[in-house]
Amino acid sequence: MLYQITRMNDSRQYTHFDTAAVHGGRSDFLSLGVHAPPVDLSSTYPVGDLASDMASIDAMVAGDNPTASPIYCRLHNPTVARAEDAIAELEGAEATVAFASGMAAFTAAVLVAGQRGKHVVAVRPMYGSADHLLVSRLLGVEVTFTTPDGVAAAITPDTSLVLIETPANPTVSLIDIEDVVRQAGAVPVMVDATFATPVLLRPLAHGATLVMHSATKALSGHGDVLAGVVSSNDQEWIRGLRQIRLLTGSVLHPMAAFLLHRGLQTLPVRVRAAQANAQVIASRLAEHPLVAKVYYPGLPGGDTHGVMPKQMHGPGGVLAFELVTEHPDAPAQFMAALKLIVPAVSLGSTDTLIQHPASLTHRVVDSSVRAEHGISAQLMRMSIGIEQVDDLWNDMLRGLNAVESMTPVLAASV
Ligand SMILES: *Cc1c(COP(=O)(O)O)cnc(C)c1O
Predict the structure, then answer these.
(1) Which member of 62, 88, 145, 258 lies 3.0 to 4.6 Å from 93 by CB, making a disulfide possible if both were Cys?
(2) Model pLDDT for residues 240-260, shown as the tens digit of each residue
(3) Cα 143 to Cα 122: distance, rounded to the nearest angstrom
(4) Do residues 105 and 99 touch, judged by C-beta distance below 8 A?
(5) Pocket residue to mutate for ligand 1, from 99, 101, 103, most atoms within 8 A of Cβ
């Protein structure tokens, strides 16, 4: 058993995470007489009793759920709310707020923080666009970037949020959440746990105030949804996030919410299958002479600070590696030789993806910052899927052979 589910589903009783993944957000199905979540695409809702409609609007403007009609689709959507309930259950959270993308979710959290204090602390490395957004100061808050050990020193009287990502992008480094929470003191901590999913990590249980995911990734899981979620046990934060979403119009589309909710059913199965494949690929890469370094917390020495046993249920399905050759065309040649693995950004899909962070996901990050955090020109990041592992490895050999043939000097020396 991974986690004890504390919130019992109204009509069906269960205590295990895997069951919650299948049944979460479905407590009213028997009374509705449906088996699959209804998709409510209404952009508006007919006015009924004016007095109760006014009360419903007041509730939503205050950041609560509607007391009667949802009124208008930017304010609330029942299909989105079902997916939120399901994720809250998996996260061990009081509530979840769903956004149109991971970046919309991140933005909303920083905007809520900005109402409380105009400074945030962020631990690098983090998702490229999140880093870029903070550097831009577009959201009206100042940022201090630091290391996992430097959080306490970076906090000022104006600090309203500490932002960390674990496992971090793209080198899969792990951060000890409880240590960061201790350093942050009274300042809330938000963990971007996209790489781990709640199958492997539930940051709220380790003292984080907020946990966010790009649900575009493993939560929806099939590469056909753009979505972001923030979960918390803190009602003030939840209300603040809903208020920002309502005002800025960053709500998740109900069709995307339906697909996300559907994806959750197989989340534990997919994550474990991808993780088993990743462990094999990482081990084989680590033994290959054309590979200089493999970043994967499941390898001996891969979890440098011993964080995994404290807070994670496995190393997950993302890994990164560096080619031995410093030939600038090597990553492109490697990807061009592949016949199965898809050269693409993103992660957490059923199919295996590979990308070159320095050219793609972390292109918007300053090159000196990239260098400092191990995002070298030779680094490749893979999101392992649920295909048969030997098919994947044979494709990796195509990539490695292509690199070998372009560097005859190095190949002769190994
Ligand atoms: C993809 C991603 C994001 C951004 O999410 P979008 O859904 O693309 O807006 C944020 N954090 C991490 C770790 C991601 O992988």
Answers:
(1) 88
(2) 999 999 999 999 999 999 999
(3) 7
(4) yes
(5) 103
